[in-house]
Amino acid sequence: MRIDLHCHTTASDGKLTPVEIVQRAHTMQIRYLSITDHDTVAGIEAAQQAAAKLPASSPLHIIPGVEISCRWQGFEIHILGWQMDTEAAELAQLLEQQHVRRRERAAQIAEKLQAAGVSRQALDKVAASSSDNLTRKHFADAMVAAGDVKDIDSAFRRYLGKGNCAYVQPEWCSIEEAVAAIQSAGGYAGLAHPLAYQLSSKWLKRLLRDFSAAGGDALEVASGQQEKLHRQQLAELANDYKLKASAGSDFHGPSQWRELGRNLQLPEISEPVWQSWSLTE
Known about the structure:
With 281 residues, this protein is an alpha/beta fold. Helix content is 39%, strand content 15%. Strands 1, 2, 3, 4, 5, 6, 7 and 8 form an eight-stranded mixed sheet that branches. GO terms for molecular function: 5'-3' DNA exonuclease activity; 5'-3' RNA exonuclease activity. InterPro entries: PHP_dom (IPR004013), PHP_domain (IPR052018), Pol/His_phosphatase_N (IPR003141), Pol/histidinol_Pase-like (IPR016195). This is Phosphatase.
């Protein structure tokens, strides 16, 4: 069964619209896809409508999802949610609060970038964005397009990354709040890309302990860009902390590095988070 529980659309910082990502997932022969945009569920309905129009002989099922930004010990941590009621009151309230925080942070980032001499062209491009859910990647993409930096990595190293001149400390919700909102909506909560936070082994285990104590359900064990050894280690950590395993590409758009559904097989020792979801092969 081909399943991908982590991808982004233009509802947050993805390159493809919900309809386009459904078309791509269908081409990649994915059976189950979760749309997990940052702090929003705005792209899910359009994706479900597009998937419903696909041939019955090769169906694609859209799993409602979200990726919620959280604060933890001075780090920004991302919590994935799946199978939630996207209209549940507690979840909707939390996402609205996150939206306000994100908008305020974007305004502060823009001010810092302007003071740092980033081109008006780049800042105007972000201001004109159709996205109502601006992220740092929107600024990075705009700076690349305007020629202020050569690539996204350079934008983060010089301006947007933590400790640099345009970084703004986010005031996100806590892990406990994110997990509670997801589960109150009938969903499952997973810790996204655990190695991306560049934590020491000691701190990673501390994060897993706190996430598990908050009632978290799963750890993202399999991702497309990953060494086999790292995947096995994450599978073992998931078991150690009594967490199920998830698999997701974190796809943001076509590139040579990431693809929907690619290289997402879980180790044999893992218990898939979707095992209790009554999914068919």
